[in-house]
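User: Let's play a game. I give you a shape written as tokens, and you guess the letters that built it. Ready? Here's round one.
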């Protein structure tokens, strides 16, 4: 077994125009001062890493790694959540997602998709240059507007959506395969891949592609009322990234899972800072350690109540306190019998070896 790496932190929620949050160097210094040892780097619009430059230049990648190493930090993964979203967008969301792409592509969904695919492929090469093993992203969505079957979904609609989703992602997965990097989809409401059933449907459509894997985030499963511990038991072989994010679900007589179009503070299901919600992180870390999870524990701060800087400050010690340094000995080794193979056979009533 391997000890989970961490604590790491996803930097996307902390970027702002104000120092020290406006430059990678100063933002890295801030999170290092909070006790983090790894950073998950957002890319794309407003991101901290240029995947196109990273794909082309080993020097650029080495410089970024060196800058972070001076602060005592490693890169956990690159993130293309925004670009991954644009790989598949239902037209009803075109205007809302246009802001994820460069201005020259807004209002041009076909060009925007081509750009998004090129970004993902560049991220594969950049991840390889950085020596990373995993990459985190969204799947995008074609079927999400039809999530609740009313009016009745036409037969074949979902199958057609996933066939098209697989068609778009297969060349990207192959590019990551060539780079030796796993694609880890954050299973997230709003994406066609949002739970185990949709992930399995996608795996079937991409013929069980070995690079199609999971970014595990239990907060999304709390809000869906899904068994987030049983999920680890079922899909642990595909879990290659991990967001430490909390959530709570407190339905009442007024609203439940769908939230009644309310803002996050009023919703029965809402995200919370790590340790403030209902996720049993002791059990989560134990399950992942027991299944030899190979990656990082990365804080993603999203909370309807707490200030982000307080969430970040509390996140590093929270993760560190939950990481289990796995044992290299059995607890009962002190009572080992020390029997050799011949004596073991006699103990089983098999007699001596002839």
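Assistant: Ready! My guess for every position:
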């Amino acid at each position: 077994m391997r000890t989970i790496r961490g604590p790491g932190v996803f930097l996307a929620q902390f970027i702002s125009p104000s120092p020290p949050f406006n430059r990678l160097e100063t933002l890295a210094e801030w999170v290092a001062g909070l006790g983090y040892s790894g950073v998950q780097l957002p890319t794309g619009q407003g991101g901290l890493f240029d995947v196109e430059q990273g794909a082309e230049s080993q020097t650029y990648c080495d410089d970024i790694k060196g800058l972070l190493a001076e602060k005592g930090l490693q890169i956990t993964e690159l993130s293309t959540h925004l670009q991954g979203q644009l790989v598949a967008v239902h037209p009803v969301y075109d205007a809302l997602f246009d802001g994820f792409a460069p201005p020259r592509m807004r209002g041009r969904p076909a060009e925007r998709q081509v750009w998004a695919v090129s970004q993902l492929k560049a991220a594969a090469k950049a991840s390889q240059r950085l020596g990373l093993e995993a990459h985190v992203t969204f799947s995008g969505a074609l079927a999400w507007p039809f999530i609740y079957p009313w009016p009745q979904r036409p037969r074949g609609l979902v199958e057609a959506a996933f066939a098209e989703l697989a068609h778009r992602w297969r060349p990207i997965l192959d590019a990551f395969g060539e780079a030796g990097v796993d694609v880890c989809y954050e299973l997230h409401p709003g994406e066609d891949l949002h739970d185990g059933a949709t992930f399995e449907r996608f795996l079937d459509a991409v013929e069980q592609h070995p690079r199609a894997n999971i970014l595990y985030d239990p907060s999304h499963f709390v809000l869906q009322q899904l068994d987030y511990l049983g999920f680890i038991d079922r899909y642990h072989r595909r879990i290659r990234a991990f967001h430490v994010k909390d959530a709570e679900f407190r339905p009442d007589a007024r609203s439940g899972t769908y939230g009644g179009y309310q803002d996050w503070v009023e919703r029965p299901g809402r995200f919370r800072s790590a340790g403030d919600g209902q996720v049993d992180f002791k059990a989560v870390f134990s399950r992942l350690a027991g299944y030899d999870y190979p990656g990082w524990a990365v804080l993603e701060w999203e909370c309807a109540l707490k200030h982000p800087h307080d969430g970040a400050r509390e996140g590093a010690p929270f993760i560190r306190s939950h990481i289990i340094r796995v044992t290299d000995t059995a607890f009962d080794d002190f009572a080992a019998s020390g029997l050799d193979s011949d004596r073991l056979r006699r103990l089983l009533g098999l007699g001596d070896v002839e």
